[in-house]
Specification:
The complex is a heterodimer of chains A (about 270) and B (about 400). Chain A has about 270 residues and is α/β, with parallel strands linked by helices. Chain A is built from 12 helices and 9 strands. In chain A, strand 1, helix 2 and strand 2 form a beta-alpha-beta unit. The radius of gyration of chain A is 17 Å and the shape is globular. With about 400 residues, chain B is an alpha/beta fold. Chain B has a 6-stranded mixed beta sheet, with helices on both faces. A 4-stranded antiparallel beta sheet of chain B has the order 1-2-12-11. In chain B, helix 5 links the parallel strand 5 and strand 6. Chain B is globular. The N and C termini of chain B lie far apart (about 55 Å). Classes of the chains: A alpha/beta (about 270), B alpha/beta (about 400). The interface between A and B is large, with 46 and 37 residues.
């Protein structure tokens, strides 16, 4: 395995660990509801307390997402979002912020069609730090994971309640940046994460890796986020933020909500 | 990869579920452990004579296999060329080839202790077959069906409900077959411990394409024996319609290493395979991409977003195709052509008039191609075509296309 160089993700978690703080990871969909509004929201995330930005790139067939993220993707596509425009959004963001890590999250086909080598070069040049690609399990590492590590990007893997101890080493093997623990068996925006159930799972993963473990799926409120962040290295919130964008809330209102979530995480 | 470099076409897929570059296991981590368990269970079942004994018994007494291989004398006369044989899989219980595969998967689900079965369906044939076998074995059945298709295929929705299945209209995306498959996958991810996903075609993550092919290969195995008995030799040409490609794969597979047999898959050309994308011909008009767990040819735009196809036949209305077909296409072992809605309708009428067989719109596409090539062949040549479904479900669509109003009393 080629070792990935230190990324903004690595530096951010090192800094947080030193300060004894938990990470708040926030997800928004690039281009939702349109390019300019999405960019305005993304630019506001660091000041609202977001430590790591997960930027979704839309796909017509998001098979692991619930209705909230599905609709966000449809809005973005309807507004003309493409993977190239998502990279452009990262470049625009980077012009004013060179510190906050950005992880692109989505499905493989748009990357495959863009061309893996070209995508990795363009993504790195734009200022992307890591990738989460839902439909690429370790069995398909040769597709994108290994080339991404070679290109200096983190490949952040999802571990799930169905990932048993026998399989966990394989899931962790080429993971870098952090591990994303999916708190429920289900799709985004469904179920409710319970800190009691999540705590032993995070401990199980941390026994096998030095990487930080962040927990996502089913976290909707500042209280949820605080409770989960207490038993992990960070908490991820997506659908709860995206549903406000979907409801037509102005960027400042969305960012106020994000700030309340960040405060919850940082209380932990 | 040139055809002459391949010793056998029967060896696929490899241990990673690949046929060449196609296939694979492009699923989320939540599903991956179950996919591996399914693969292991299928491997065990595949080598267990007791599993196949149960299949054979159900195929014979419940489905009505073997299906006849019928010499279509009047079609042959009218077209004035090759002898045309029809593999009569439309005579199966539930009216199509779909049940061949469903039985295999449900027996596997029983071995795995799964009590809840989910399925996706487009026209409703796979949904009806799944609901049927679930009723037979007393299993809970949930069928995901695009809301658009629920409205268009009311008789099949009613059938599924009579058989005790819950039919869930899918409104996500654009409410078609691919969205039904997305929602079935979302259900599976949520209920992965209790639920078996019964996929209706030779697509999806490994081991589905290989497993569904193996269950459907009964079609080709029977046809091979039957044509040898009737003619003392193998056919010159095989023809079958392709949506996802399960009936075609079932007919083709036992003949893949018979190099003298020409193999032709017929895709839905809709309103014509051109830039308007009003078709479902993934091989003729698409390019490789990744969707629903496998890499294969897909209808998609320059950003890798999946496009909706169009076909008069709801059963062919899918923007992808099984990965083994993609591989057979690239290696040149099989040829793939497209037939338009209009040509399929003409073939539909031809079958009714010459043979007294009302075909489904799917095999009507295959027949339309037979009508093109048979007259160019000699009277000693033999074509075997898979009549994979009957047309009862399609009479309303056909009536609409022909401008006839049917009073359903509603």
């Amino acid at each position: 395995m080629q070792t990935v160089r230190e990324t903004r993700i690595d530096r951010t978690f090192a800094r947080l660990r030193e300060a004894g703080r938990k990470a708040f990871v926030a997800y928004v969909m690039a281009g939702d509801p349109d390019y300019d509004t999405a960019l305005e929201i993304v630019r506001g995330l660091p000041a609202a307390g977001v430590d790591v930005i997960e930027l979704g790139f839309p796909f017509t067939d998001p098979m692991a997402d619930g209705p909230t993220i599905q609709l966000a993707g449809q809005r973005a596509l309807a507004a003309g979002q493409t993977l190239a425009r998502t990279l452009e959004m990262v470049r625009d963001f980077r012009a004013g912020d060179d510190g906050t890590p950005i992880v692109l999250m989505g499905y493989y086909n748009p990357i495959y069609i863009y061309g893996v080598e070209r995508f990795l070069a363009d993504a790195r040049a734009a200022g992307v730090d890591g990738l989460i690609v839902v439909d690429l399990p370790p069995e398909e590492d040769a597709e994108l994971c290994l080339p991404a590590l070679g290109a200096g990007l983190n490949f952040i893997r999802l571990a799930t309640p169905t990932t048993d101890d026998a399989r966990l080493p394989r899931v962790l093997q080429n993971t870098s940046g952090f591990v994303y623990y999916v708190s429920i068996t289900g799709i985004t925006g469904a179920g409710a994460a319970s800190a009691d159930q999540v705590a032993p799972e995070v401990a199980r993963i941390k026994k096998r890796t030095e990487l930080p473990v962040c927990v996502g799926f089913g976290i909707r409120t500042a209280e949820d986020a605080e409770a989960i962040a207490r038993v992990a290295d960070g908490a991820v919130v997506g659908s709860a933020i995206v549903s406000r964008i979907g409801a037509g809330e102005r960027p400042e209102a969305v960012l106020d909500f994000v700030r309340s979530l960040a405060e919850g995480v940082h209380r932990a | 990869m040139a055809e002459e470099l391949i010793n056998s076409f029967l060896g696929g897929p490899d241990e990673n579920g690949r046929f060449g570059i196609y296939g694979g296991r492009f699923v989320s981590e939540t599903l991956m452990p179950l996919i591996l368990e399914l693969e292991a269970e299928y491997e065990k079942a595949r080598h267990d004579p007791a599993f196949w004994a149960e299949m054979d018994d159900l195929w014979k007494h419940y489905v009505g296999r073997p299906s006849p291989l019928y010499f279509a004398e009047r079609m042959t006369e009218r077209l004035g060329g090759a002898k045309i044989y029809l593999k009569r899989d439309e005579l199966n219980h539930t009216g199509a080839h779909k049940i061949n595969n469903v039985l295999g998967q449900i027996l596997l689900a029983r071995r795995m202790g799964k009590k809840r079965i989910i399925a996706e369906t487009g026209a409703g044939q796979h949904g009806v077959a799944t609901a049927t076998v679930c009723a037979r074995f007393g299993l809970e059945c949930v069928v995901y069906m695009g809301a658009t298709d629920v409205a268009r295929q009311a008789p099949n929705v009613f059938r599924m409900r009579l058989l005790g299945a819950e039919v869930v209209p899918v409104t996500s995306g654009r409410g078609t077959l691919k969205d039904a498959m997305n929602d079935a996958l979302r259900d599976w991810v949520t209920n992965v411990e209790t639920t078996f996903y019964c996929i209706g075609t030779v697509a999806g993550p490994h081991p589905y394409p290989a497993m569904v092919r193996d269950f459907q290969s009964i079609i080709g195995k029977e046809a091979r024996e039957q044509i040898l008995a009737a003619e003392g030799r193998l056919p010159d040409v095989l023809v079958a319609a392709i949506g996802g490609g399960s009936n075609a794969m079932g007919l083709f597979h036992p003949f893949l290493d018979d190099k003298e047999v020409r193999i032709i898959g017929v895709e839905a050309g809709g309103k014509g395979v051109d830039e308007r994308m009003q078709h479902c011909a993934s091989l003729t008009g698409g390019r490789p991409g990744v969707l629903h767990g496998n890499r294969t040819y897909l209808l998609q735009d320059a950003d890798g977003q999946i496009l909706e196809g169009h076909s008069i036949s709801a059963g062919l209305d899918y923007p992808g195709i099984g990965p083994e077909h993609a591989w057979l296409h690239d290696t040149g072992r099989a040829e793939y052509v497209a037939i338009t809605d209009e040509e399929a309708l003409a073939a539909f009428r031809f079958s009714c008039e010459t043979e007294g067989i009302i075909p489904a719109l799917e095999p009507s596409h295959a027949l339309a191609h037979v009508m093109k090539i048979a007259p160019e062949m000699t009277r000693d040549d033999i074509i075997v075509m898979n009549m994979c479904g009957r047309g009862d479900k399609d009479i309303f669509t056909v009536a609409r296309a022909l401008g006839v109003e049917i009073d359903t009393g509603g």
